[in-house]
Amino acid sequence: MYIVISTILFSTMEIALKEIAGDFNPMQLTMTRFLAGGIFLIPFAVNTMKKRGVRIEVKDLRFFALLGFLGVAVSMTFYQLAITDTNASVVAVLFSCNPAFVMVFAALLLHEAVRRRNVAAIILEIIGIIVIINPFHVQIGVSGIVFTLLSVLTFALYGVLGKRKCAKYGGVAVTCMSFLFGAFELLAFAGISHIPAFAATMAGNGLGVFADIPFFTGYSMENIGFVLYIFIGITGAGFASYFTAMEKTSANSTSLIFFFKPVLATVLTFFILHEVIPCNMVAGIVLILAGSMANILPGLIESRKAKNRIGAGAGAET
């Protein structure tokens, strides 16, 4: 159930953000939605830590600050810039390659084993990305693609590093703390952006989105429904469901979210945003799905066999 909830919420994320992208500064939207999401997760995080009998240690605050910087301040800022700059369906599909990048960082930082199926998955997903980009006949914004890939890379690093503390505090608590730290870091940056000299430098170098970042403008009765859905639904409940699924099942099972997301998100953007889905994008989706299948399916089969062996062993003992 948590996987289903996460899949639906994450598959509608790009559509909802696209609907209100013109009403808000990208930095403002990222800052406020993760602040609201973090506040929403506080009672769930407290409950999780009470069950585990742990409290946030002062020495871990720097780690959460780094995690928030990577996962929110950097990754989600690039993500929002990508949503503003290119088709929502393109961002949704490319972001679904996240598990492949997670494997790379997990091997480098956590020394997890990389198997043949992992390599096959990475190759297929990279080919899928190239097919979607279609470098010989580029029809989508290059900057949007670059922003998306930078967002995927930093989010994958965020996920791998966050895993170190999930065993201690629980996934929801780690998510909550990283959201709050990331949001406050962006709030500090937003304050700096109002310094005249800084704002003039940003605007003068074509980075006006980082100058005079607003705090409270853009909200209206027309977009308040989307705002609440994004802030509380997608950012709060979506990420809480994702990390709860990670705790209750395996990483391979939870990765099914990124298997179904590109298909569901593409279908939804076609019917809701009326975005045209070119043939090269369909081919890219098929390749990325094949890569996901190569990565996820063997792990699920191995897990099922292991459970069956345990069950058979218990039955024999009885």
TrEMBL record:
<keyword id="KW-0472">Membrane</keyword>
<comment type="similarity">
    <text>Belongs to the EamA transporter family.</text>
</comment>
<protein>
    <submittedName>
        <fullName>Putative membrane protein</fullName>
    </submittedName>
</protein>
<dbReference type="Pfam" id="PF00892">
    <property type="entry name" value="EamA"/>
</dbReference>
<feature type="transmembrane region" description="Helical">
    <location>
        <begin position="280"/>
        <end position="301"/>
    </location>
</feature>
<feature type="transmembrane region" description="Helical">
    <location>
        <begin position="172"/>
        <end position="192"/>
    </location>
</feature>
<keyword id="KW-1133">Transmembrane helix</keyword>
<feature type="transmembrane region" description="Helical">
    <location>
        <begin position="32"/>
        <end position="49"/>
    </location>
</feature>
<dbReference type="InterPro" id="IPR037185">
    <property type="entry name" value="EmrE-like"/>
</dbReference>
<keyword id="KW-1003">Cell membrane</keyword>
<feature type="transmembrane region" description="Helical">
    <location>
        <begin position="119"/>
        <end position="136"/>
    </location>
</feature>
<dbReference type="GO" id="GO:0005886">
    <property type="term" value="C:plasma membrane"/>
</dbReference>
<dbReference type="InterPro" id="IPR000620">
    <property type="entry name" value="EamA_dom"/>
</dbReference>
<feature type="transmembrane region" description="Helical">
    <location>
        <begin position="61"/>
        <end position="82"/>
    </location>
</feature>
<feature type="transmembrane region" description="Helical">
    <location>
        <begin position="88"/>
        <end position="110"/>
    </location>
</feature>
<feature type="domain" description="EamA">
    <location>
        <begin position="2"/>
        <end position="133"/>
    </location>
</feature>
<feature type="transmembrane region" description="Helical">
    <location>
        <begin position="142"/>
        <end position="160"/>
    </location>
</feature>
<feature type="transmembrane region" description="Helical">
    <location>
        <begin position="256"/>
        <end position="274"/>
    </location>
</feature>
<feature type="transmembrane region" description="Helical">
    <location>
        <begin position="224"/>
        <end position="244"/>
    </location>
</feature>
<feature type="domain" description="EamA">
    <location>
        <begin position="143"/>
        <end position="293"/>
    </location>
</feature>
<keyword id="KW-0812">Transmembrane</keyword>
<dbReference type="InterPro" id="IPR050638">
    <property type="entry name" value="AA-Vitamin_Transporters"/>
</dbReference>
